[in-house]
Amino acid sequence: MCGFVGVISTSDVAGEIHIGLQAIQHRGQDSAGIATMVEDGSRFCVRRGLGHVVHALQAEELKALVGPVGIGHVRYPTIGHGTLDDTQPFFYRQPGVLMAHNGNVTNYEELQESLKDRSIHLLSRCDVEPALCEFADHLMQRRSKDHTLEDATEAMREVQKRVRGAFSIVTALMLDGLPTLLVLRDPNGIRPAVIGKRADGSWIAASESVALDVLGFERSFEPAPGELVVLRTGEEPQRILLNPGCAAPCVFEFVYFARPDSMMNERSVYELRLGFGRALATRMQEKGIEADVVMPVPDTARPAATALAEELKLPLREGLIKNRYSGRTFIMPDQVTRRAALKLKLNPLPSEIKGRRVILLDDSIVRGTTLHRVIDLVRNAGASEVHLAIHSPPVRHPCFYGIDMSTKEELFARRFEGSLQEMEVAAAQDLGADSMTYLDVESMDSVFGESRCAACFDGKYPQVLSEAEQWGIVGDRKQVHR
Q1: Which is deepest, 66, 285, 381, 390, by most CB within 10 Å?
Q2: How large is the angle between the packed helices 128-142 and 108-117, nearest 10 degrees?
Q3: From the candidates 2, 250, 399, 456, which is the catalytic residue?
Q4: Which H or E run contains 101?
Q5: pLDDT one-digit tens code per residue, 270-292
Q6: What is the DSSP letter of 86?
Q7: Can you list the alpha helix ranges (DSSP code H) found in 48-97?
């Protein structure tokens, strides 16, 4: 999972991209980069660094990034080792093109071999690089220079044929003699993308709408699955449907990854999380669970906890205080780092916990690392009972589309067999809770209300992966976590 911001305007855009990236910092803490192109396409500037945006790209780097069109990116690795070589955006010299993406290319190994057969060699393990090389190669096959929008459209059509997986791609180059920003979404629209406009004729493409908000852009539309969007300053977008499939936006974006103030698929992430909380309250009422207080595990679970408390007519309290300078433990690169970070991340408030029956609400359980520790914290702070509530279904299946859970062995829910109710009992005992309640898939769907990718919950993948693709992704994850 990553995040991008692309801007095309009438003046230098690096400063705005830097601000936009900070708005989507939650999508990647591993590295950040910005690349720009000057107005006539004669020069490209790229700066990349490890860590958060403000550390990876400081003032001196921004001064060097000139040009009215550019792309920025924040990353955490699902393929690649998290080194500077794997940091986006990427630049290809022929014909002169910048590219970044959000998602996961599943057939990296196949693309690498195909490119090698054409004497094109990759310099990284980042999965956007083969997509960039495919695009550039097909563009150069059409003509050696002065490329047109028609050339780029056909090259992107080839990218969509050859590149598999979940991705939203943003590209900057010269077409028809004009600076141009291209946005391509995968045929199922699994990964998010949004387009925004401003009164001065500028356009923005980003992974989440919060990047538009901080920069004063009005949200315009979201590219459809399989759609190519062409953006030029002062012109209306051109929308070209290349190869649409069945829409399947990732539901885990709404459960955990996206900021609550984002809009995705014309839906408010915050409102959907409220709906998940209300549906979860119904399950807890059916089970007859009694409690004194509802407490969210900061921060993603707060909206659902608010709705659950209202439905159960219980007070909502902050029982765990989060260190605002700690990162998101889920997207840290290994278990050792996650455990160490968790010790810094949360601290209990005994005055709100002691002697009370606590409903502790979290968004999901992937590995169980965080919740083992959190339940211990709440117990040690004096809770008389701890009832765990999760506002998503059990994560039983790997994700191959960009969420960091690509092996069956690491998934907490796969330790338990039987019905959902039997699994909840066993899982509560394992975690040290008095009870545990998941949101079931049917209730999640009743809230979400449209087609979606929930393969991590139900095992129904919108794109069938070959065994070679699955092993390729798992192999890379083992390298990342070695």
Answers
A1: 390
A2: 40
A3: 2
A4: strand 97-105
A5: 999 999 999 999 999 999 999 99
A6: G
A7: 53-56, 59-64
pLDDT confidence tier of residue 324, bands split at 50, 70 and 90: confident
Average pLDDT rounded to a whole number, residues 118-144: 96
pLDDT at 369: 83
Q: 389 — phi, psi (to 5°)? A: -125, 135
Q: How many helices (H) and strands (E) does the chain have?
A: 17, 21
Give the residue-averaged pLDDT of 61-70.
Answer: 96
Q: How far is CA 28 from CA 161, 237, 328, in A?
A: 28, 28, 9
Helix (H) or strand (E) holding 389: strand 385-390
- Rounded to whole angstroms, how far apart are CA atoms 197 and 218? 5
Q: Give all domains of the chain, ordered by start, each with its CATH number.
A: 2-248 (3.60.20.10), 268-459 (3.40.50.2020)
Q: Which residue has the tokens 């563009």?
A: 139
Q: What is the pLDDT of residues 413-449, one digit of tens each?
A: 999 999 999 999 999 999 999 999 999 999 999 999 9
Residue type, 374: V
Transcribe 289-328 into DSSP letters. Answer: ---SEEEE-TTTTHHHHHHHHHHHT--B---EEE-TTS--
- CA 457 to CA 257: how far, in whole Å? 15
Is residue 2 part of the annotated active site? The answer reads: yes
For residue 474, what pLDDT is reported?
60
DSSP assignment of 185-232 equals: E-TT--S--EEEE-TTS-EEEESSTHHHHHHTPEEEE-PPTTEEEEE-
Tell me how far CA of residue 255 lies from CA of 147, 252, 338, 423, in angstroms.
42, 5, 20, 21
With beta carbons less than 8 A apart as the criterion, state whether 171 and 133 touch.
no
Residue 296, burial from CB neighbour count under 10 angstroms (0-12, 13-18, 19+):
buried
Q: Is 236 exposed, middle or buried (0-12, 13-18, 19+ CB in 10 A)?
A: exposed
Give pTM, 2 decimals.
0.92
DSSP for 423-471, please give it.
HHHHHHHHHT-SEEEEPPHHHHHHHH-S--B-HHHH---SSPPPHHHHH
H/E run at residue 269 = helix 269-287
